[in-house]
Amino acid sequence: MRLDKFLCDCMLGTRSQLKKEIKAGQVTVNGAAVRKPEQHIDENLDKICYKGQTCVYEKLVYYMLHKPAGVVSATEDERERTVLDLLGDERREDLFPVGRLDKDTEGLLLITNDGALAHELLSPAKHVEKEYECHLAKPLEEEQKIRLEQGVDIGEKALTKPAVVHRIDSQKITLTITEGKFHQVKRMLHAVGNEVVYLKRLRMGSLALDLKLSKGHYRRLTAEEIEGILHESLFRRNK
Fold first, then answer.
1. Rounded to 5, what percent of the chain is helix, strand, coil?
2. Average pLDDT, integer, range 65-89
3. Which one of 60, 65, 125, 199 is CB 3.0 to 4.6 Å from 105, fit for a cystine?
4. How far is 221 from 42, CA to CA, in rounded Å?
5. pLDDT score at 239
6. 62 pLDDT more than 90
7. What pTM was estimated for this model as a whole?
8. Would you say the C-alpha torsion 93, 98, 102, 105 has a positive or negative sign?
9. Are 144 and 164 found together in one domain?
């Protein structure tokens, strides 16, 4: 790995700032000052110090973001603000959102650089539960609820898999699905004669949105949360 990328991934500054620090002799590799940002190092074996402090590299990182409306679930976009822009100084070049939430949809979004975990969470064959809070244009009728729980036609080759529906009040429900088709929740409600006017993801597998986390804010996953999703991933992989 390039030395400047390593330091950037350690959240010590921007790539351009760190290049200046390296050229100024502020970084040592195994005790020797290095002034070339492009020098390659072994992040697992070499001892890197920045201004006298040993740098610890985290290969895999996991963030929970409370996505607000108005930002897109992408790594970059020429016109729109992305969810990675919300990470500020903790943004790394290898981070990406796990799956997508529509621009107007809020709630839980996992951001990581763990590609294997992302595959397990997003693979259609793994049937990972995704729970949403839905505010509806009209009260949900019992017949509509039954149809959602049986599977509905949203224009795909097959009906959607059965959903789990819980009423919050007449026009608010939680809907749990195990697929991730394009605009699926909105299409499912439309198929039964209703419309979603507000959508928020509450949970993905065992990972639930921290209700103390304000919209647009993020935090690192706790050790327990990481252990939970990794354990689930390993279980699904071995099924």
1. 30, 25, 45
2. 93
3. 199
4. 26
5. 52
6. yes
7. 0.81
8. negative
9. yes
Structure-token pair, residue 201: 């993801």
- In single-letter form, the type of residue at position 225 comes to E
* Contact present, 134 and 196 (Cβ < 8 Å): yes
Looking at the fold, whether 149 and 174 belong to one and the same domain comes out as yes
Instruction: Please report, for the domain that includes residue 36, its CATH number.
Output: 3.10.290.10
Where in the sequence is the domain holding 16, given as residue range(s)?
3-54
Residues 118 and 141 in one domain: no
Q: Are residues 188 and 136 in the same domain?
A: yes
Determine how β-strand 48-50 pairs with β-strand 53-54. Answer: antiparallel
Q: What is the pLDDT of residues 144-154, one digit of tens each?
A: 999 999 999 99
Report d(CA 109, CA 101) in Å as an integer. Answer: 8
pLDDT number for residue 152? 98
Residue 236 — pLDDT band, cuts 50, 70, 90?
A: low
Stretch 210-216: mean pLDDT:
96
Catalytic residue numbers, as ranges: 102
Number of domains the chain contains: 3
pLDDT at 124: 83
Question: Is the Cβ–Cβ distance between 110 and 63 less than 8 Å?
Answer: yes
Strand pairing category for 196-204 and 106-112: parallel
Q: Are residue 95 and residue 142 in the same domain, yes or no?
A: no
Which CATH number goes with the domain that contains 78?
Answer: 3.30.70.580
- Residue 117 tokens read as 């975990």
Mean pLDDT value across residues 133-152: 98
Let me know whether 79 and 27 are in one domain.
Answer: no
* CA 222 vs CA 125, 164, 226: distances in Å: 27, 28, 6
133: helix, strand or coil: strand
